[in-house]
TrEMBL record:
It is found in: Nucleus. This is Zn(2)-C6 fungal-type domain-containing protein. Keywords: DNA-binding, Nucleus, Transcription, Transcription regulation. InterPro entries: Fun_TF, Zn2-C6_fun-type_DNA-bd_sf, Zn2Cys6_DnaBD. CDD domains: GAL4. Pfam families: Fungal_trans_2 (PF11951), Zn_clus (PF00172). Residues 4-32 form the Zn(2)-C6 fungal-type domain. One of its GO terms (cellular component) is nucleus. It comes from the Eukaryota. Its main location: nucleus. One of its GO terms (molecular function) is zinc ion binding. One of its GO terms (biological process) is positive regulation of transcription by RNA polymerase II.
Length: 536
């Protein structure tokens, strides 16, 4: 190959020009084009100025319905918002009652991403060809995306048998796949919808169609007491949280999260595995329940650091010792040690108390300072290497794998330390320097650049570093990290996160020229930017 391939040029990455296909296209699953492909879309070529543009996910997200309200165990879906999808996909209401998703004849012909390994289960024979493609896509790409390390027991993949028996969960699964596929048509810097990368134009419509049906199905499920305990209902809500990461990171994730918490809390018996079935047929379903509950715990804690104080409730469903999440990288979304999650939750509770405190007496202030200091010291004492070596594994890990897992834990430890010290600063009224910790955190982030599997798990530490860094070189490095994170995940929350950081840096620079900035205020101000962001 003499020139860089068209696909790499449109993705704005460096083509290795190793052959046809090039190594980067082959690894990422893209078809390697040498020239811009000529494709027909609704009667005109994609090169024509008359082709239909694809809707921008971040623009749609604020209109897409996904509201789940949870109060005293009552979970409802705001059905009146379902109609808003029709402004993007007219006519969906005419087909929403069918069990199988619609067939789009030209979708299969326009797919340009290499088809992932096929599911051979005879149970998928009732699905149309479009649904089969997206189910394969979910199996091959989505399951690896939202887990630290892929394995034969990947809990995201174990949802497929349940989805084959439940149309609501199936539509939630297909929504994730279609939205991720549609996001391949965007780049980190270029969001002009007049410039489209080589992806099927129907992927965006498919994502909206599946989401409409999933939301409508959830509406029916939560309105019937007999189905409120179904695992598929909880799993569907759970997947909608991940959908928000792909769409924007600021839509309805917190409402979905509260709805899932409510379901778990009201049905604790489902999450208590009797010893008589510890190794029986129900183990896989129980493992899925444990996985979902532990990831709800993780998302709630890390997500709670960048939202308004007291927006999220504490997860009472995991207060019993037997229900506490355990550290298993093959069964974790991000791999943050549970020990650190507990500490961060404690710090957020203290932050919320500070935000609420008005006429607090000196004795209470001293007690709170003592509590925060104790949590910070407990974080400092956490041994990342011991954690990495003690993780349960199916195979003996190499020294490099242990080193990288240690770096993963270190990134969360350092991020938690910075967060804790800023909470302490808010209580004492002082301004401590975090320069050394920020440098250590950036080094930990940099050490994971060659490990795609773990790098896709560290958006939260990257963002904490971004909120604290002061030097231009650090900001440039972290901006590159965010772009890399986008290429690995195609989650729109990172693009919005990058825009937030750029605005934040500009404001900090202006403040530094006029007066002494108060760095600790980001622990409160992040949730006051007009939206509650899920930056994990």
């Amino acid at each position: 190959m003499n020139d860089p391939c068209y696909t790499c040029r449109r993705r704005r990455i460096h083509c290795d020009q190793s052959g046809t296909p090039c190594a980067k296209c082959e690894k990422s699953g893209f078809e390697c084009f040498q020239q811009r492909p000529l494709r027909w879309v609704k009667g005109v070529t994609l090169r024509s100025k008359f082709h239909d543009s694809v809707l921008r996910p971040s623009a749609q997200s604020k209109h897409m319905p996904a509201k789940l309200l949870a109060e005293a165990g009552d979970v409802q879906v705001a059905t009146e918002e379902l109609a808003s999808i029709n402004q993007y996909v007219p006519g969906l209401h005419q087909e929403s009652s069918t069990t199988d998703v619609r067939t789009v004849d030209d979708t299969a012909n326009s797919l340009v991403i290499a088809s992932p390994r096929s599911l051979s289960d005879q149970a998928i024979t009732h699905l149309d060809k479009t649904s089969r493609y997206y189910l394969d896509y979910y199996n091959d790409r989505i399951c690896k995306l939202f887990i630290v390390q892929d394995s034969d027991s990947n809990p995201m993949r174990n949802l497929i048998p349940l989805a084959l028996q439940d149309s609501v969960l199936m539509n939630a699964v297909l929504t994730l796949a279609a939205r991720h596929h549609a996001n391949t048509g965007y780049s980190f810097h270029q969001q002009d919808t007049s410039i489209i990368l080589p992806v099927p134009v129907n992927a965006n419509r498919d994502a909206l169609s599946y989401k409409y049906k999933a939301i409508q199905g959830l509406t029916s499920s939560v309105e019937h007491a007999t189905s409120i305990k179904h695992d598929t209902t909880l799993a569907s809500i759970f997947l909608l949280i991940f959908l928000d990461l792909l769409e924007s990171g600021s839509d309805r994730w917190n409402v979905h999260l509260e709805g899932a918490k409510s379901l778990i809390t009201c049905n604790k018996s489902l999450f208590e595995l009797p010893s008589s079935v510890a190794y029986g047929p129900g183990q896989t379903v129980q493992e899925i329940r444990d996985f979902i509950s532990s990831q709800i715990y993780l998302i709630g804690i890390l997500g709670g650091t960048f939202v308004r104080p007291k927006l999220l409730t504490q997860f009472s469903g995991l207060q019993q010792p037997e229900l506490q999440p355990k550290d298993v990288v093959e069964r974790s979304f991000l791999g943050c040690p549970v020990y650190l999650l507990d500490a961060i939750q404690n710090l957020s509770t203290q932050r919320d108390a500070i935000a609420d405190s008005k006429n607090i007496n000196d004795c209470d202030v001293r007690r709170q300072i003592q509590n925060i200091t104790g949590v910070v010291e407990s974080i400092e004492s956490f041994d990342c290497y011991e954690w990495a070596t003690a993780l349960p594994r199916r195979q003996v890990p190499s020294q490099q794998e242990i080193t990288n897992l240690c770096s993963l834990a270190s990134s969360y430890k350092l991020g938690a330390l910075i967060y804790g010290r800023r909470v302490l600063d808010a209580r004492t009224g002082k301004e401590s320097s975090q320069t050394e910790l920020v440098c250590e955190l950036i080094m930990a982030i940099g050490s994971l650049q060659n490990d795609d599997t773990l790098f896709k798990c560290i958006l939260w530490p990257i963002f904490v570093a971004g909120l604290e860094c002061q030097w231009k070189t650090q900001r440039q490095f972290l901006a590159q990290c965010l772009e890399r994170f986008w290429r690995l995940t195609l989650c729109f929350n990172v693009i919005n996160g990058a825009e937030i950081l750029n605005t934040y840096w500009q404001e900090k620079d202006q403040q530094s020229q006029s007066s002494t900035p108060s760095s600790s205020q980001w622990i409160f101000n992040m949730g006051r930017l007009g939206q509650d962001w899920l930056l994990i």
